Amino acid sequence: MNESKTGSEQEDLMKTKKLARLIVKQKKMIFDQWECLVCGFCCTRFRFGMKGDDLERWDGLIVDSNIGRYPLRDFVNFDSHVYSKMGDLFFHPETKEWLFPCPFLGEQDGKHPCLIHDSRIKPNVCKDWHSTLIDLRCRATRQIVKRKFGLKFKDEDEEYQYFKQLNVHVQQFQHEQLFGLSLKILLDLCKNPEILQDKSSR
Q1: Are the C-beta atoms of 162 and 137 separated by less than 8 Å?
Q2: Which letter does DSSP use for residue 64 in this model?
Q3: From CA 38, how far away is CA 105, in angstroms rounded?
Q4: What is the pLDDT of residue 162?
Q5: Same domain assignment for residues 99 and 59
Q6: Are 93 and 70 in contact (CB under 8 A)?
Q7: Which domain holds residue 144?
Q8: Where among 74, 106, 129 does a domain terminate?
Q9: What local confidence, expressed as pLDDT, does residue 7 receive?
């Protein structure tokens, strides 16, 4: 009895992994079809961090938030032990308390639009969301996957549990893919060290 159950579980696992690989192969299609549902899920579940040219772009900008109007750079507390270049945003401009969920998460007609959605202002980590890696915690992504592969569920809980397990394998395969690409680049550089020399001489 236990052996039969184990066999069934193994079969389900193989099917899940096979689907995960197919999803990763369909990355471009998913990115092309993806459109934000403005549900606020990522804004209320994940932590934010500065990246790239965020500070430079925010210089001199004064913005509206759920706690008032302040210079955007004042939401960054450089003295906090929590802060790092890829650490947590945002902090209260006056009390320096960490603010979560995001203080720029709006609410309108059942949706949650970003108050700093302008690409010239929005943090890079938010702009990059769903532009490099597939994440099945995103509802818009799940809709695409369900439609593409004909997945149906009896209720939201069943869907959540299924995608939770599926996402583990999707993340694993994506990171293996990235590791393989990085390894290939490293090997190419070892075979052709003149590439680095050419760049350093420029």
Answers
A1: no
A2: E
A3: 10
A4: 95
A5: yes
A6: yes
A7: 2-34+135-200
A8: 129
A9: 76
